[in-house]
Write a structure and sequence with these properties.
Number of helices: 8
Strand content: 25-35%
Strand order of the largest sheet: 2-1-5-4-3
Largest sheet: 5 strands, antiparallel
């Protein structure tokens, strides 16, 4: 099992007293809140004597927010740590929550959490982005910019309503694709270079930047910025080039003879 960075109750207490909105939940169903620092108590009106009334569901609205937060808690239980982007019910600001599993001497397994505001992209960045994706399964593209659609060989209408798996191909790194889709699911700030397949079969390395953004009518979505970093010809175009070269060799000019 992953070893926690916190090996004593004192180190847990020190973590909870640090800057940022920090709190701890028990690693049991419902994830009851055990306590938090001053910023957490001020934001949530949490009182230690009423801790039994505070659970994960009191921190965010039911639906996708609660599902995402509980998913992050469960991942921390299994893997030692996790993170997610959340709109808490006590704040209009989108937060990134880092979760770390630890063990407290009196209550057993707990999840330590630190929430910090996510720096949102500007209006210009949103208007010029490549696409907006849903953070709910099947993570389809809600809107696609014409310029990026042309880069990958599709019309915007062909990509809208489909997921980024549309760009997977035989030479794609499926683990990297899964990592990107998982970052969309957990609403994380994320960056990676991934090999994709364009519509014409060309292989292209593309740098993806993902940023979670709240949209009033849709909840938390994912803004995608993508930039091509290198493309290779499709097999058909490569063969066509080889054929052309072979034809040039077949029609070599006669050797030059001095007069």
């Amino acid at each position: 099992k992953p070893k926690s960075m916190f090996d004593s109750d004192c180190s847990i207490d020190a973590y909870l007293l640090s800057a940022g909105i920090r709190f701890a939940v028990r690693a049991i169903p419902g994830f009851p809140v055990l306590g938090g620092n001053g910023e957490f108590c001020s934001a949530t009106s949490f009182r230690p004597d009423c801790s039994s009334l505070f659970q994960a569901k009191t921190l965010c609205d039911p639906g996708s927010e609660l599902e995402t937060l509980e998913e992050a808690f469960n991942r921390a239980k299994s893997n030692g740590s996790s993170a997610c982007g959340i709109l808490f019910s006590f704040s209009p600001v989108l937060m990134q929550v880092e979760c770390i599993k630890s063990v407290h001497s009196s209550v057993g397994e707990i999840i330590l959490c630190c929430a910090r505001p996510i720096c949102l992209p500007s209006t210009d960045e949103i208007e010029q982005c490549s696409a907006i994706a849903s953070t709910r399964q099947p993570f389809h593209l809600i809107s696609v910019g014409d310029q990026w659609a042309q880069t990958v060989g599709y019309a915007s209408s062909e990509m809208t309503g489909r997921s980024l798996n549309l760009l997977q191909g035989p030479s794609s790194d499926f683990a990297r694709f899964r990592g990107m889709i998982d970052a969309i699911r957990m609403r994380l700030v994320y960056e990676d270079v991934i090999s994709i397949h364009l519509k014409n079969g060309t292989t292209c390395s593309m740098r993806f930047h993902l940023s979670p953004i709240p949209i009033d009518s849709l909840g938390v979505c994912c803004m995608i910025r993508a930039r091509a970093e290198g493309c290779r010809p499709s097999p058909s175009s490569a063969h066509a080039l080889e054929d052309l070269v072979s034809q040039l060799h077949l029609h070599d000019a006669p050797p030059h003879r001095p007069p």
